[in-house]
Amino acid sequence: MNNNDYIFNLKVQKIDQICLFELTWGKGQRLNAQINYPPVLTQLYQDWRRAYLNFYRSENMRGRTVDGGVAKLTVDWHAELVKAETKFMYEFHRWLRSAELYEIRAQIAQTSQQFSKDNPDTNIAIQIFLTCAPLELDRFPWEAWELGNEFATNEAIQIIRTPLNISTESQDKRQGRPRILAILGDDTGLNFKAEKEALKSLMRIADVEFAGWQPQYTAAQVIQEITEAIADERGWDVLFFAGHSNETEMTGGELGIAPDVSISIKEIAPHLSAAKKHGLQVAIFNSCSGLSIADALIDLGFGQVVVMREPIHNSVAQGFMVRFLQGLAKHLDVYESLIEARQFLRMDKSHTYPSSYLVPSLFCHPGAELYRIPAFRWQQRLRQSIPNRLEAIALALSLSLGFLVPVQELLLEARVLTQSVYRNVTAQIPTEQAPPVALVQIDTESLYRAQMPNTQILPLNRSYISKLVDSTRKLKASVVGLDFIFDTPQKDPASADRDLGKAVSQAVDANMWLMLAAVLEENREVGANEALEINKWDWTLQGYIDAYPNFVEVPDAQQDCRKTCPFAYLLSLVYLAKDEIEGFPQPNTNRQQNLRAEVLDIIQKHNKPGNLSALSQWRSPFGLQPILDYSIPPKQVYQTIPAWQLIEQPDINKFPLMSKQVVLIAVGSDERLGIAPGQSDRAPSPAAISYWTQQQWLTGGETLAYMVHHFLTKRLVIPIPDIWMIGIAIIFGKITVFIIKNQSRLSLSRRRQIMAGSIGAVTLYGIGGLQLYISGAILLPWFLPSAVFLAYVLPATRRNNHA
């Protein structure tokens, strides 16, 4: 539906006792109707006008002369006016509901309903530009025509008057801060105080200047000041006049600008034309009998003119204009402001000012856009940022999903899988000569070869672990982590703790850095018990293995790593420190000082550039926790060594890299191995791991190996939260929607271009995010932000096309 489809032109002409109604719209559509004019309407209007003038009294009218004579004190003119209005409006509505006009009424109502259905998010209303001839018809209150009631439609239908003859096109709006010229004319018997205050209240959003009569001015000086102000080259947006005025047949109406001094519209037409060229859009005449004034100004090319068709009482004029200006101050357009003011008179002042709501009218140039004082830029942006119904649904759904942990885990897994495919397709897999971690796994075959009874599998026989420690010592491993908790004595076999203690002591005396696992409990670590004589904290290390799935466990910024420290982090620090710090202490069983505290003190004092300083001083930006980067194939992260192979073949030639790797000894994916009965130390493999290896399970030891790899290679990928990117997507979406709405009607090809461009932008964002993940170690979420962006933009193209 284009602009012309919801703009009607209705021409009503009276020829003798016949009225011709002609409705035109769209691309040449036309309806005609012919209806008898009831002569009683003219008599009822005259009765109403007589009662109206007598009720309000001539001395307080904003006009020079008043018909109807002087009211008799014995007549209740309030009752007479109410009665006259009721009779006149009843007959007027009955005439407009005639069967001859049914098709016209139905067409307007049907278009209004269809437009509202097609454009639920717009506040544009159906407009009827009404032209009446002769003047007798123009005096009737056509604005009160209840067009929608018959068809039970509540959609807005705007009835706007337009003159029969218009010789000049409308002018474009001026740019810059709104400017209002207020001309205050002859105030004999009147009071402009309320209007002055209402105009001054607009000064916060517009420049308001006053001109007009002053007691010290001569008639010539008043005329000069007014004409010069009107033609000011800076231009005006709104011209306001308050004072006395009257209709004239040939001169376009006259304005009382000083006591006993009037000026006609024809006399100031050149100045008004100059003002129009400088951007003047709206003229508001808060004075009497303005029909000829409106016709003359619209003919000059003015966009909108507000007038009173009848004489108007001073108090009514003040009340109306205060409400009207308040509407403009709220950035309503001229029509909306007029309706608010009329409703105020009709609902709030119906007893005090009866029939006054029937008097104001808006005349419009058909080619002009209804004027409103533009909001401040930040106010416009604020209003435009408020989501509509569809946007609100998309926003609420995306934010809800953004806070749901299961959904976030699913989206992260899909994102890392996509990253794995992208890395593989673009050949951006790391090419280190050897993985930095050697992962010794006690798998099912190792248990079988050891002929270990089920009673010694959980908890795992510590004598078997001691054999693995001995083997790593023989292979000259320098940094070894044991992913086991030794918090209670082992009774089966009873010698297991002694065997493990002996293996640990021998490894430490061979200068091996040994780290044992612990778990967090109330801000302290619970790990190996020194009473078991397996180890001493003066010559072994300990770190906790608790971690969130899919995330790298980093030190808590609020905790001292001397008390609680992540297992993989501390293991990596020691590995780097022993090579970078000259004179770094060596572990041995003769030490008398807590090893972890001493190591961390030395590392803290080390300030030479290098991998160690980068790791020890690293802090998570904005408290965001890095993720485990499963887009790197496991074979690039760790070398898998079955435990049985290490025990049976502890040959340095078979494992030549172990002396240069961090060695992790952990359980494999055998379901019998774990932390406690029924709690195996494994989880289903992430989709990215399955992509690389097709394995079904991922063990705790493998996640620790990934953490160590990330610390040693400075591969700490920071995930940007979905909520952040959804917020950015909303901003870009709203900006795009604003650009779309400011365009004229979109053609089908243009609409497809915008849709393709939006989808292309989302695709480029996704590809850019994939590369940024690899190059910058930053994970940008894609699905939810992209969905929100498209939910904002794509419906806007359809709405614009309908408009």
Whole-number average pLDDT? Answer: 89
Backbone structural class: alpha/beta
How many E strands? 27
Number of helices: 26
Percent helix among the residues? 40-55%
Report the span from N to C terminus. 6 Å
Taken as a percent bin, the fraction of beta residues is: 15-25%
Cα-atom Rg, whole angstroms?
A: 43 Å
Give a quick account of the main beta sheet: strands, pairing sense, barrel closure.
Answer: 7 strands, mixed
Unreliable stretches:
64-72
Shape: elongated
Assembly type of the chains comes to single chain
Give short descriptive properties of this protein:
803 residues, alpha/beta, six-stranded mixed beta sheet, 42% helix
Q: How are the secondary structure elements laid out?
A:
Layout: E1 7-15, E2 18-25, E3 29-36, H1 39-56, H2 77-96, H3 102-118, E4 126-133, H4 135-138, E5 157-161, E6 179-184, H5 193-200, E7 207-212, H6 219-230, E8 238-242, E9 244-246, E10 254-258, E11 261-264, H7 269-277, E12 282-286, H8 291-299, E13 304-308, H9 314-329, H10 334-348, E14 360-364, H11 377-385, H12 389-403, H13 405-425, E15 437-442, H14 444-449, H15 462-474, E16 479-482, H16 496-509, E17 513-520, E18 525-526, E19 541-544, H17 567-580, H18 595-605, H19 611-616, H20 634-637, E20 638-642, H21 643-648, E21 662-667, E22 674-676, E23 679-680, E24 682-684, H22 687-693, E25 697-699, H23 700-712, E26 718-719, H24 722-741, H25 748-776, E27 778-779, H26 783-802
Parallel strand pairs: 1-4, 4-5, 6-7, 6-8, 8-12, 12-13, 15-20, 15-21, 16-17, 16-21, 17-19, 26-27
Antiparallel strand pairs: 1-2, 2-3, 9-10, 10-11, 13-14, 17-18, 22-23, 24-25
